[in-house]
Amino acid sequence: MEYKIIIGIDASRANRAEKTGVEWYAFNLIQEFKKLIPSEYRVMLYSAEPLMGELAVLPPNWESKIIKGINFGCGPWLWTQLGLTLEMIKNKPDILFVPSHAIPFIHPKHTFTTIHDIGFEVFPESYSFLARLYHRFSARLALYAAEKIFTPSEFTKEEIVKRYRADPEKIIITPLGFDAGRYNPHPADKTGREPYVVFVGRVEKKKNVKRLIEAFRLLKSEVSIPHKLMILGMPGYGFEEIKEAAGDSKDIIFTGYVPVADMPVILANASLCALPSLYEGFGIPVLESFASGVPVLTSNTSSLPEVAGDAAVLINPESVEEIKGGLKKLILDDNYRSLLIEKGLARAKDFSWEKTAKKTLSAIL
């Protein structure tokens, strides 16, 4: 069959074994695209390694291609700018979609990409010098060369326009989704369990984990509660300082990376989810918690009020006292907890990966 249009999609992030926010975004969009892209289009998935798991199950009009990076004796380097650029020179598709903002030097006229946030500008200390340079270069190239830019929130769009003087008409807001098949209010098994507060995300300075720990320890010193604080996620910038804030407390548990298969049970059994982040482009754990029937404490800054609406306790993330007060209210006030759980379940219904994919495709095709 001869296809009238070829769509190329960078699947390198979606194909990673251990996924966090951007990787899950790429994976879920591709999975939704499989249902939505008409059969008269040919779709090519580019990756550095053979596709794994569900990603490798392709419709008849889809295929995958392994693109090798350029090796200088220290492993593949700049896969997008060298490997994918070379593929664009040899076999350029009609349309290219890159789910993260690094587009290849050579690319089709109809190239689309997503800038999730510009945390590398706001928290430069969290990135190495070379990483900052690369992110800044990639963002500027994308804003100059891509036909449209997708971004997950009005907050991030405003940040991009302000920082780079970008054309707001070029930027399309596509709110993110969550896996409703995994995250739902199934009955939680609390038998024999100690109650706990859960944090989900990279354990780093910009996630404000240190203040969360300080607020939690202060609350424990003032009120007799049996709760523990479970901190789920890989270490990031400032981790040692965060660990120091926890001290030798037996009530604060660092789990490291948690496989996605384990996350629904951990969330469903939590008393509440605390995400007092200083900076977020979106905040998927807020939706996952809502959908799980778990009340949420989060920040009144960055994109988080957009995601949470009136369904969460919103606090000033720079105030340990406000974080402590929010934790206390959600732990001790059962009526308020029930109200927020009900609001959160309703709020979660406004978001889905299907909606994200449909809005993205409406701009691409």
What labels describe this entry?
Rossmann fold; six-stranded parallel β-sheet; 39% helix; seven-stranded parallel β-sheet; single chain; 365 residues
Would you write up a description of this structure?
By secondary structure, this protein is an alpha/beta fold. It folds into 2 domains: 5-179 and 352-364, 3-Layer(aba) Sandwich (Rossmann fold); 196-348, Rossmann fold (3-Layer(aba) Sandwich). It is globular, with a radius of gyration of 21 Å. α1 packs across α13, α6 crosses α11 and α9 (284-291) crosses α12 (334-348). It has helices spanning 21-36, 79-90, 119-122, 129-145, 154-164, 209-222, 239-246, 263-268, 284-291, 304-308, 320-332, 334-348, 353-364, and strands at residues 5-10, 41-47, 62-66, 70-71, 76-77, 95-98, 110-114, 148-151, 171-173, 196-200, 228-232, 252-256, 272-275, 296-299, 313-315. It contains 13 helices and 15 strands.
Topology (SSEs and partners):
Elements: E1 5-10, H1 21-36, E2 41-47, E3 62-66, E4 70-71, E5 76-77, H2 79-90, E6 95-98, E7 110-114, H3 119-122, H4 129-145, E8 148-151, H5 154-164, E9 171-173, E10 196-200, H6 209-222, E11 228-232, H7 239-246, E12 252-256, H8 263-268, E13 272-275, H9 284-291, E14 296-299, H10 304-308, E15 313-315, H11 320-332, H12 334-348, H13 353-364
